[in-house]
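Trying the structure run again after the queue cleared.
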Amino acid sequence: MMKNLYSLPSLTMNYSVPIAKILQSLMVATALALPLSVMTAKSALAETYVFSITNKTATNITSFHTSPTGVNDWEEDLLGIDILKPRASTNISFTDTRNVCTYDIKAVFDDGEEVIQYKVNLCTEGNFTFTGQ
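Done. Tokens:
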């Protein structure tokens, strides 16, 4: 029996397995990307506050804290490891996703004294000066 040179092997393949795997991979990729897109959307809604503080006292400011008015705990020290020496100024910048303008601020001096100002509008206030204690 002679072989037909023009006959092709069967082109019928079972595509259900590869397509199922592709769809599964796409679903996993989508599931992994979703939290990133949510985080990006949240950070896009965050407010950045920028202002300066000036120390016109004779004592170093060792820490500077803000918290939205009504929050009972002071948040992280915005000076970090730095101190603000007498007659010095620095710029403060932080980002908050709560999108509020009214904050309480606290400066702590190296002699242990604290100065607190309540209900400060950080959306409109740009400079804070601490004078003689």
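The radius of gyration is 30 Å. Worth checking whether this holds up in the mutant runs.
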